[in-house]
Amino acid sequence: RVVAVIMVGGPTKGTRFRPLSLNVPKPLFPLGGQPMVQHPIVACKSIPNLVQIYLIGFHEEREFALYVSAISNELRVPVRYLKEDKPHGSAGGLYSFRDYIMEDDPSHIVLLNCDVCSSFPLPDMLEAHKRYGGMGTVLVIKVSAESANQFGELVADPVTNELLHYTEKPETFVSDRINCGVYIFTPDIFTAIQGVFTERKDRANLRRMNSFEALQSATKALPVDYVRLDQDILSPLAGKKKLYTYETLDFWEQIKTPGISLKCSSLYLAQYRYTSPHLLASGDGTKTATIIGDVYIHPSAKVHPSAKIGPNVSISANARIGAGVRLISCIILDDVEIKENAVVIHAIVGWKSSIGKWSRVQAEGDYNAKLGITILGEAVAVEDEVVVVNSIVLPNKTLNVSVHEEIIL
Ligand code: GDD
């Protein structure tokens, strides 16, 4: 039996995702037309003997209630949201719900960060994990040497795949192989986390005997029940024949900013060609718009037949796309209206926004740059014939003049 746990974090973590996280918790932001967290959930469904999926976080329970009940029914796998009273760190959060997780008596626990975009090769990874015979297996990918320091860098044995050395976001280069935030563990992970608590308590007791040192370290110390999977578990257990790696050659991205979410949306749309072609708009009917490349259109959206859409476009529920509109590389959220002959390129258009006739909302499309894509927050109104380039517009603004490289607060 296998139980999957997806760490969804909480509101304090979502600040880089503003203004999009003002409306919806980041894990529910749509990529390829489906909530971010749904991609790992669907991937978990392909694990043999999966009995339960838990989402663990410190977002309000009501924000996830509707979603988890809908997805449980749709996929016929029980999905449950468990709320931490406060952040316990990635390993501490897992540990705080160990009783729930162990209720199903799992032989394996699949643990996933919610904010990664991947093909999640979980069945193959589980097979590899069983062959290695360790306590845990980490999904790994090779990245450019320049970008590696944003992640956990690691060194593995090229023959046995054992994890030999692990450093979280090191200042000096260690390796271009990084931790993808996707793991398989045996229930022994709980003993390992318990070990960190015990060691911390022992150290605190020792310090109490030496009051000068206690004074020095009191400000630095983490709360006793805050345990990070990377620094507190992976680093100390590397090289002890307990942890192994499984390298993916497929796509992988970390989703920290709205810019990257537009790239991830395109990666998931491309994946649908193999996994869920029914989600892609085909546009071969004479009454439908012209579709180019990978496009998702929610069934409730209304798209004028003379519009031209794609590649990499996803259109959410109840959006209305007028005559002659051109959409390229963009995410159009619920209830948006785009009027005749408007153009949207490399942009995210927030819930209930409207774009006037002959207007242009665009950017150059550098996913990593701060203003590399244009973002309109919720209920932004762009009036007719206005041009918005490389800009971020916060919710509820009306734009009646053109803007270029601006953040409109
Ligand atoms: N429930 C809960 N409680 N979730 C948490 C908590 C917590 O207290 N703290 C973090 N998370 C979740 C985040 O939402 C995210 O999905 C995941 O745990 C990891 O978050 P961080 O611990 O903030 O690490 P990171 O995202 O900067 O980096 C981690 O992931 C990278 C891959 O994306 C590290 O493990 C890196 O080594 C790794 O490369």
Question: Care to describe what's here?
Answer:
There is one protein chain. The protein has 409 residues and is α/β, with parallel strands linked by helices. It is 25% helix and 29% strand. It contains 9 helices and 31 strands. The chain has helices at 38-44, 61-75, 89-96, 98-103, 122-132, 188-209, 211-218, 229-237, 258-275; strands spanning 2-9, 30-31, 34-35, 50-57, 79-83, 108-113, 116-118, 136-142, 152-156, 163-168, 177-185, 243-247, 252-254, 290-291, 295-297, 302-303, 308-309, 313-315, 320-321, 326-332, 337-338, 343-349, 354-355, 360-362, 374-376, 381-382, 387-389, 392-393, 398-399, 403-404, 407-408. A hairpin with a 6-residue loop joins strand 9 (152-156) and strand 10 (163-168). Helix 6 packs across helix 7 (211-218). It starts with a strand and ends with a strand. The mean pLDDT is 93. The chain binds guanosine-5'-diphosphate-alpha-D-mannose. Guanosine-5'-diphosphate-alpha-D-mannose binds next to strand 1, strand 4, helix 3 and strand 11.
